[in-house]
TrEMBL record:
GO terms for cellular component: plasma membrane. It is found in: Cell membrane. The keyword Membrane applies. This is VTT domain-containing protein. The lineage of its organism: Bacteria, Bacillati, Cyanobacteriota, Cyanophyceae, Oscillatoriophycideae. The chain crosses the membrane at residues 18-36, 56-78, 114-134, 140-164, 176-198.
Length: 206
């Protein structure tokens, strides 16, 4: 997920200039909870590897390491102070504490899948780590799911741009990946919101 004020050309220039560090830092900051275009930087890194400007394995290693480190930081941030912050945000947006507890419990029940698969979902990649910490997911379990998810996600992203980048334009590839991530987000939101809506509607009829 990227911002409109950061052009693809600018990201490509940053990746070209700083190479593996750009990939590592970009995805680490994004996974730590800072909404930076880490995914786009990773795709650009794979694209540059495909054109021979960077080494495929170093790009892949940088993406995996950045994703693991960033999510670990987000996890501890969520565990140490995420819940009080979430409660304050809930009051700001008029969300009842009971509803936040329900969301927290739902996430706890699906935490492993959320951490592993959340990297392919827009926004969830940014917030999966902090949410796992808020839900008090056991750290050893989080670490394993996080490392496995980071490896699979980075392998798909880097390999996709490395091989497919020679067949289609980088702009089109980034757009397709972003559309997939947004579609995945819509499905995840529906999965959480629809059961809560049905339960509220049922309670109102009793």
């Amino acid at each position: 997920m990227s911002f409109e004020f950061v052009s693809l050309e600018t990201i490509r220039e940053i990746a070209h200039q700083y190479g593996y560090w750009a990939v590592f830092v970009g995805i680490a900051l994004e996974n730590a909870g800072i909404p930076l275009p880490g995914e786009t930087i990773t795709l650009v890194g794979g694209f540059l590897a495909g054109s021979g400007e960077l080494n495929y394995w170093f790009v892949l290693g940088s993406a995996i390491a950045g994703a693991i480190l960033g999510d670990n930081f987000g996890y501890w941030l969520g565990k140490w102070g995420g819940w009080p912050l979430l409660l304050r945000l809930g009051k700001l947006f008029r969300i009842r504490e009971e509803q936040l507890h329900e969301v927290k419990e739902q996430f706890r029940q699906n935490a492993a899948r959320a951490v592993f698969l959340g990297r392919f979902v827009a926004l969830l990649r940014i917030f999966a780590g902090p949410l796992a910490g808020i839900a008090q997911m056991p750290y050893w379990k989080f670490f394993l799911c996080n490392a496995a998810g980071a490896t699979v996600w980075a392998s798909v992203m880097v390999s996709l741009s490395y091989f497919v980048g020679n067949l289609i334009s980088l702009e089109k590839l980034v757009a397709w990946v972003a559309q997939f991530a947004i579609l995945a987000l819509i499905l995840v939101v529906a999965w959480f919101v629809i059961p809560m809506w049905l339960e509220t509607r049922k309670a109102n009829h009793l």
